[in-house]
Design goal:
Blueprint (H helix, E strand, L loop, with lengths): L2 H23 L2 H17 L10 H22 L19 H9 L2 H12 L4 H8 L3 H20 L6
Length: 159
């Protein structure tokens, strides 16, 4: 893959990457940083990509790892402000109750749900991006839906 192809393919998936990072990090500026860092790391490690067909999945995996690093950094410095808006600017959940239900989910459930239901990624791609078996990804999406529904039915009380 050459520089031009990398740029074209990275631009095509940039919005999806931002939404994934935002689902993990909740802060738009952290999500932008994570996407930028992931793109830089991908460019630097491009020779390690064995099959160009998996470029987007590979890049998503790099982004998820970088986003988790940011979360660890944030936990090490708890004085930083934490936004209540977990879905942010994605407009994935225009309904405030649904937005709060998604915010209440643990990242291990929220992320696969957002990837599948908001970004319309196939479950197999979600599983690859999260480095989990297909069945685990499918189960987490199912659990996320159940937990969000329970949250909504109970009037928005966190468990």
């Amino acid at each position: 893959m050459d520089r031009n192809e990398f740029g074209v393919r990275a631009r095509l998936c940039q919005t999806r990457l931002y939404k994934i990072a935002l689902a993990i990090l909740s802060q738009p500026y952290d999500a932008q940083d994570a996407v930028q860092d992931a793109l830089i790391r991908a460019w630097e490690n491009l020779p390690r990509l064995k099959n160009d067909a998996y470029f987007e999945t590979w890049l998503t995996r790099i982004l998820i790892n970088r986003s988790r690093e940011i979360l660890r950094e944030r936990a090490a410095h708890p004085s930083q402000e934490f936004s209540e808006n977990m879905i942010g600017e994605t407009q994935a959940a225009p309904d405030p109750d649904l937005r709060r239900a998604l915010e209440a989910l643990d990242t291990r459930y929220r992320l696969p749900l957002v990837m599948r239901c908001v970004l319309d990624m196939p479950i197999a791609e979600v599983a690859k991006a999260l480095s989990v078996p297909y069945g685990v990804a499918k189960w987490r999406i199912h659990q996320a839906k159940k937990l969000a529904q329970k949250y909504l039915c109970e009037g928005g009380r966190k468990q």
